[in-house]
User: Which sequence fits this backbone?
């Protein structure tokens, strides 16, 4: 100890120089250090969701939740499995033992999920940090309807924010995805002797694309090809239905009205732009709007993700006139 103290006093100028260098190095590294509100204290969690549009809670439990629980039972490293069944959606949350590699856990679950994913009704939720939420963004507009605002938020804003490094998911609260709805009239159905199933088949067969598909016609297939002396040209189907007026003119199979004219979709109900029934809603600064919840990966830096989201919003603002963004609603 005496030797150490004596040496330090003898080379005191060198000791002071090294201390200054160490302090400067630390100050330079502080802006690049990962910062979060809380450390990653939660064990690895893998969440799987499966959708069943139109299913009741009992049907979701019997047809979706229980088969998924049976498939994931016995997964290596699994500690606790919890499930939740609500109308139209099954949610399975698997908590693995501490020390389990999160990516390995997701790989094992993905292998067991493959048969369900092939059917197109089960997905694995992206990995999230313990706090998960980095920012809540309110979107509102005085010139656009909530349906138009939802389409912009879903296809433009969310798509851009998902490209920010570190962003895992951006769920939207209060969204109203615009879709064509046929509001059937029971009296007219009875008058023309048409069942709801007939109307559903005719409507879905007329549409071959969209967020929701009801029949195999939801898959766009090639229309063949024809050859020229120089090249082969593909033939593809161009959807002729772009609005309620077009869908209202769709004929229902080969049925005829009493006057001999074809029975069309508009004869049995009203065709309008509408959205699916809301489960919840969002209020932004006292007015209806959308709430985008930005969630990050466990290994992402909160400050970097926040700066990236703000930069992305600033880039989009000139191209989205009439839309207001409020990023002060929530930040950790």
Assistant:
């Amino acid at each position: 100890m005496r030797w150490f103290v004596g040496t330090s006093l003898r080379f005191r100028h060198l000791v002071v120089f090294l201390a200054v260098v160490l302090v400067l190095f630390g100050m330079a590294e502080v802006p690049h250090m990962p910062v979060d509100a809380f450390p990653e204290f939660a064990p690895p969690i893998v969440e799987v969701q499966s959708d069943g549009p139109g299913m009741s809670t009992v049907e979701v439990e019997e047809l979706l939740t229980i088969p998924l629980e049976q498939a994931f039972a016995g997964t290596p490293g699994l500690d606790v499995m919890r499930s939740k069944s609500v109308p139209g959606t099954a949610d399975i949350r698997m908590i693995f033992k501490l020390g389990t590699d999160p990516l390995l856990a997701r790989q094992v679950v993905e292998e067991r999920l493959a048969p369900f994913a092939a059917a197109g009704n089960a997905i694995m939720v992206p990995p999230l940090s313990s706090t998960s939420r980095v920012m809540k963004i309110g979107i509102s507009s005085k010139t656009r309807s909530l349906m138009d605002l939802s389409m912009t938020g879903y296809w433009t804003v969310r798509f851009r924010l998902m490209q920010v490094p570190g962003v895992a998911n951006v769920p939207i609260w209060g969204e109203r995805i615009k879709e064509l709805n046929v509001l059937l009239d029971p009296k007219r159905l009875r008058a023309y002797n048409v069942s709801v199933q007939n109307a559903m088949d005719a409507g879905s067969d007329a549409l071959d694309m969209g967020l929701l598909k009801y029949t195999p016609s939801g898959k766009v297939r090639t229309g063949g090809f024809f050859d020229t002396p120089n090249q082969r040209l593909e033939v593809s189907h161009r959807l002729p239905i772009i609005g309620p007026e077009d869908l209202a003119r769709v004929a229902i199979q080969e049925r005829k009205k009493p006057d001999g004219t074809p029975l069309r979709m508009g004869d049995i109900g009203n065709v309008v732009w509408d959205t699916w029934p809301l489960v919840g809603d969002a209020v932004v600064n006292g007015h209806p709007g959308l709430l985008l919840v930005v969630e990050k990966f466990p290994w992402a830096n909160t400050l970097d993700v926040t700066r990236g989201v703000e930069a992305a919003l600033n880039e989009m603002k000139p191209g989205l006139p009439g839309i207001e963004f409020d990023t002060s609603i929530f930040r950790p």
